[in-house]
Amino acid sequence: MPVDDERCRRAARGQHTGRVGTGDAQRVVDEVEGAIAFERALLIGAAGWIARSPSLADKLFLCRWVWAAAERVRTLDRALPPSRRGDALEAGSDAGTRHLVATTIAAPSARAFVRGLVESVLPAAAVIYSGMARQHGLAARAAQVCARDYRRVTGGRPPRARASMNEAERAYRSRLHTLAAQTRGWQAGDRGVSIARDVLKPAREPSIQAQACGEVRPEDWLGSGEREHHQYLHQLIGFEIVAFETVGRQIADFPTMPWAFHSDLAMQIRDEYRHLLMWLERLRRRGGRLGDFRLCSLEFDLCAGQPLAARLALFQRLVEGFALEALDLNRLLWEARGDVVMLDYIERVQLDEVMHVRKGNEWLRWLCGEEQNITAVVTRALAEARARLVDTAQALAVRGCVETGNLERLLGKLDQGRGMPVNVELRRRAGFSDEAIRHEGLRRDVRVSL
Ligand SMILES: [Fe+2]
Ligand SMILES: [Fe+2]
Asked: What is the mean pLDDT of the chain?
């Protein structure tokens, strides 16, 4: 069976050597390609910090950064001559870019990274793009679009002052400042920069605090009272936060995957962010307060530290695949209650989720090849994650850290699809083959008619 880490490494492409001409034309191409590498590196860094930033405001800022950077990369690539498009999109193409990626990920704290983006990267990018917009006809339009995009990030205002930084954070800011000001020709450092891998638990401030790994508190998906509705919304909020944190790690832990992979995941982060805003808005309108219920992060715990194929199998294929059908039940619930706002939200979310599962299936196929290999990855990943989480839940129970019935609730979540009908049409739209749909039926112990 193919090993996905090896496939990731093979995806790292060699540095291109072709030239498009001499003088100005070549300089324009070099500058645009430098900007692409710069944006790619920062996208990967920002994605990695989503799960590591405790502040919800910073998580949301980083989500916006990731998909805006993806859009800038696409804009810049389109500005290249046709023969050069796509060449600069692979982040692992040279040692200097890899060094920039490693540096952004290795910030001493979430606060230092976010401040580094605002105080060092934004001003540097504004200078680069205004310069390009003035000097070069070919890339001028793309540069104007990117400059405008950066101005939008700050809202045209200088970054607000925040709490003072410690020595490590100040040193990091100046290192990022130097790198950002270069935009090309980053020199790999003499000493390797250590990259945080295997983030096992997302950082969370009190209002979005996660349950412990292996802990599953009682949930309520059907209650009709106001407090039950607040709890229901917290369950959805918890899922959206986990989704962008998990997907952010899929980008950052696998920085040499092809650009198309990072681009697809950046769009997924955008969608999860928008879903979260809908639930937060609903909670606010219904008089709820974020933080009244501890959020579940089981889906993050399932995937943390696993190889990429296992993460895609567990999150996009199994968890989000199950959500396709679970959202159907939610839709019926709100239809029966005549709540058109919730109905509209659920339908919007389900449309996006079909695409997330579809992309997950495509990338699983890219990593693993044939359907039988994917089935083997899914089965093994689930069995390993289940054993790991059950062990953790049992240890929590021995220490008296969880409420009675925790292990049963955990097993209930892990087996939540059992006995539930498989929606063949929805799954086909989400890129499941007939063989995969049949396998899902077997896993759930239900009949499937294809
Ligand atoms: Fe979502
Ligand atoms: Fe999703």
From this structure: 86
